[in-house]
């Protein structure tokens, strides 16, 4: 009877460990899907041709400004240059994050393959669980970085829709009123 009780306790312990293992596998799959989604979203923001075109416009604007006299036109062109430079920086960051996510996905795929190999070689449920724990820790590091990138992208998206205020527009209105 005592052997039966310890057998049931062992089975219950193994079932709990199996539930934990399945939860970890679900977590890994969820993180992998999120990384793929983040990579896809970054790819939508990356346009190498446009980034090159903007960089050329920055150089043209700098050259143009170097020869201009002070005034409203120069101020407007300086504002345009600042916006172009922000776009160049955003494109650079997006490219860097894209490369990071590609490496992270590759690392995750290789880690999952390693876990699969360890699971095949494991003789105990504890061995399988320990392998998964390592992967979950690594995924946590990548998830934190992905959340930061998503926040930055969303902030940049909102910034693209709000143009800088232009005090020159008020001056134009006042001059129009004076002429009339």
Descriptors for this entry?
single chain, 180 residues, mainly alpha, 5 helices, 0% strand
Specify the oligomeric state. single chain
Q: Which residues sit in consecutive blocks of at least 5 with pLDDT less than 50?
A: 161-180
Anisotropy-based shape: rod-shaped
Number of alpha- plus pi-helical segments = 5
Return the structural class: mainly alpha
Global mean pLDDT: 75
Query: In percent terms, what proportion of residues is strand?
Result: under 5%
**Major sheet characteristics:** none
Indicate the percent of residues in helices. Answer: over 70%
Strands, total number = 0
Report the end-to-end length measured between terminal Cα atoms: 105 Å
| N-to-C SSE string, H for helix and E for strand | HHHHH
Description:
The structure is a single chain. It contains five helices and no strands. Helices cover 91% and strands 0% of the residues. The longest helix is centred in the middle third of the chain and has 50 residues, at 72-121. It is rod-shaped, with a radius of gyration of 28 Å.
């Amino acid at each position: 009877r005592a052997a039966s009780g310890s057998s049931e306790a062992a089975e219950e312990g193994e079932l709990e460990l199996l539930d934990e293992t399945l939860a970890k596998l679900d977590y890994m799959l969820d993180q992998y899907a999120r990384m793929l989604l983040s990579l896809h979203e970054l790819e939508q923001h990356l346009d190498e041709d446009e980034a090159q075109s903007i960089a050329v416009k920055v150089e043209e604007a700098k050259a143009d400004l170097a020869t201009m006299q002070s005034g409203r036109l120069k101020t407007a062109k300086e504002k345009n240059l600042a916006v172009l430079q922000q776009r160049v920086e955003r494109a650079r960051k997006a490219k860097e994050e894209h490369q990071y996510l590609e490496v992270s996905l590759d690392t995750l795929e290789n880690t999952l393959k390693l876990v699969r190999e360890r699971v095949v070689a494991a003789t105990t449920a504890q061995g399988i669980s320990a392998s998964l724990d390592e992967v979950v820790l690594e995924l946590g590091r990548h998830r934190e970085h992905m959340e930061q990138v998503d926040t930055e992208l969303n902030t940049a998206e909102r910034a693209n829709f709000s143009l800088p205020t232009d005090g020159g527009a008020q001056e134009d209105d006042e001059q129009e009123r004076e002429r009339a």
